Structures are given as C-alpha cells and as structure tokens.
Amino acid sequence: MRLLSPEDWAAHQGRFVALWTDANHAYALYQPQELVAVALDNGAYPALPHKGAAWFQRLAFDLHGHFDLHGHKAVGAADTRPAVEHHRAADFTAPWPEFVSPGGEGVYQVAVGPVHAGIIEPGHFRFSVRGEEVLRLEVRLGYAHKGTLGLMRGKSPRLAARYAARVSGDATVAHSLAFAQAAESALGVSAPGRAVFLRGIMAELERLANHTSDIGAIAGDAGFAFLDARFALARETICAASAAAFGHRLMMDIVVPGGVAGDLAEGGAEAILDALAALEAELPSLTRVFEDYASLQDRVIGTGIIPPALAEAFHAGGYVGRASGQQQDARVMPGYPPYQSMALYVPVFQEGDVAARIRVRLEEIPESIRLVRDMLAALPEGPLALALPPESGMGLGVAESFRGPVWHWLSIEGGAIAAAFIADASTLHWPLLEQAATTAILADFPMINKSLNGSYSGVDL
Fold first, then answer.
1. What fold characterizes domain 148-281+331-342+365-459?
2. Are 163 and 175 contacting, i.e. CB atoms less than 8 angstroms apart?
3. pLDDT by residue (tens digit) across 411-437?
4. Alpha helices (H) in 67-156, listed in sequence order
5. How far apart are CA 292 and CA 129, in angstroms?
6. Taking CA 205 as the corner, what is the angle to CA 201 and CA 210, rounded to the nearest 5 degrees?
7. What would the pLDDT profile of 280-297 be if each residue is shown by its tens digit?
C-alpha cells in the first residue's frame, strides 16, 4: 500500500477497481493489484474522477455516516444519492427519492420494483419512456442492507468466512476464495496444494452452473423455452454433482482461510466427470440452436449494447467486459493458484450486445470443463488446511467469479478482523445496465438485465 497526498490521490491514473474507507484512510484499488490510500481530513477525502467510483463513494458515506455517525465524504463528488436504505437518514427521516426525467412531449415513467415477481432480490428500476423507447434508466439498489462488513469486524477470519460465503450466494465459492486469499495474504500463510486444486475445481463448477443457468434464462426471456429447459437441466446436473462431491449444491462454506473445510467425497470425482461429459455432449447441438434460429437471433443481436469504450471506462470484467472488447480475467492478471500453469483461453468479442454476452458464456463452458478435468487429474495428495496464526497484517484477495473479479480486503489485528471491504464485479456493471437499456425497447429489458445478471446482494454490504 502507498500513502498519497490528496493531490496525488485525486490525480492517480489506472484501471480503477474499488474504493472504501476505514476510520483513518480512504483506499483505492487499481488493477492489477495496486492499493493506494489517502488520510481522511475530518472524515473527508477528495473524490475520484473515475466513472466507476461513484457507487463506492456513496456507499462509504452511507456505511460510516449512518452506522458509525461520522460520514466519510468524497469532496467534489457529483453523485451524492444514498446507496443503501434510501428511506432513512441519520434522524430516521428522509424525503422520497427523486428520479430525473429527460422531459419532452410524450415521456412517462415506469416504476419496477424493488419487490419483483418470483424469487429475486430487491432493486428498483425507474424507466423514462416514450412509447416503447427507453430514454433513461435509473437503478436504485441497497434495499436489503445486510451489514456484512460490520458483522465481520472483531471476528477471526475462520468465523467471518461464513459472511463472505453469503455476500452473493450464486458466487459463494468465488467470494469465499477471495476472502480466504485476503486473510492468508495478511497473515503470511499459503493454502496446501490439495486445497488449492480443490478450490479451483469448485470455482469452475460454480462458473459452469451459472453460465448454463444464465444462457437458458436469457433464452427464456426471449420467449425460447427449449433452450431454457435444456440449460436448466445442465445446471441441475452440475449442482447435483457438486453436492455429491462436496456435500452442498452451491459448495457453500467449503473454502475457508487456510485451505478447505472438507475433501472430495468418495465417488465425487466420478460424479463430476459424468456431469461434465453430459454437458459436453449436448453443448454443440444447443449452440447450433442458439445460432440457427432466426427469431432468437433477431431478439439478441444488436440489443442491449455496451460500447467497448464505455466498458473500458468502467473497467468492466467477466462476460460483460469480454463481450465489449475487454480482455480482463483475474485468473490471468493478477493471477492466482492453480491457474498460472494452465494456459487459460479468454474469449473476447466486440459487439457488446446480448448475443455477445451469450457467446462469451458459451465459449467459457468448454474451457471450464477442460480446467476441471485437468485439475482432477493433477489433484495432489496432502493436508487440506493450515491453522492461521493470531498475527496482524493487511491483505488483498481476488477471485474470478462467473460475473468477473471479486476483491476482498482485510485488516487483521491480533488474529481478529479490524476492518474489511468487498468489491463484487457487479458494482461496475450496474451503471452499464443503465446504458444498455437505452439501446432497446422496454419489452427487451428483462432479457438485457439477465444478460448482465448483476448481483443485488453483492453490492449491498
């Protein structure tokens, strides 16, 4: 970590990842793994000019202003809307949030959420529409604030790992892995080789389960039920194999600081390999269905466009960034075990539409199948975990979730967490959804939203 002057802090250039504060400093993380800080001046620090910084600055003020009663203010920030608990303020009163309309004849607003149909997390979408054309979308999140960071403080990394595993349940392995790596970095330990490979196997199974689910759901939103049904079956097969191998369909609470909490079950490798073979056998025909049906292609090509320049400005990762020309993958840069020796293929497209985000997923599926097979074949013997020393230190951890990179930062004092922060890939993707929605009609929004599949919970700390 480098401590900067306020002037150098505000002028620092790089690929911005995240911003957060503790009692004394504001921190900014830049890719690949550069951490800088500036001292708070009466709870204030200079706002950063990076497009992706707005949400983090809003969150820093809400977390410390509302709960710790000394709001950390980004001086010069243009966006000062609340990030969490929009209906409350320090005195438990607040005006109803205002939503800006572009105005003009025939423009009206459509409100969706925060309560949605079906089983889905809360989020509010306010559309400004003329006819069916979306002129503006404003996304409001933070309706289910969990207090995750506060719950972590004062606990050992092993105890706090349960909170990391529940930041976003569909990416529980990735968040648990990033948290474990942050704790291990802070305390100067490394997970045993067998644990490292088991972590990699679980991470790729999680990627497969979510990519198959997402492709099917996007097709379902486009009115194509066949792909939705077949990919849902593929996801179920992967989840069932994960349960047979690790005792949990989502593999929650298996990755822990120091290693893993359990070994591969008897028959688990065979269950995984059978699931991979089934998916691999059907994937070519499902891909042809996606590519050959003109009615489906008509819905997804040119819909929900995120231009490469905008994706670069927000430093988008995962399938969102890679569909818009950004070749970023945390498994490659900064990289972490066991991926350094695996010659990872990262698909990249330029179109930035729903179709490109599907194609990224389709091409990542066979790569994840290969990786799981290679890791199972190379799985070493040895211990599963090491005890963590009751030491002090600061550490960063990163893992490439199916959405993109998730980062965890920990400050540990005497074996207990003094401060923590979590940056889910979705934080830099939600503003891009606001742009993507304006390139299509209102009826296409569910499909566009699913193609980005931002985590509500992942940004609601």
1. Cytochrome-c3 Hydrogenase; chain B (1.10.645)
2. no
3. 999 999 999 999 999 999 999 999 999
4. 148-152
5. 32
6. 150
7. 999 999 999 999 999 999
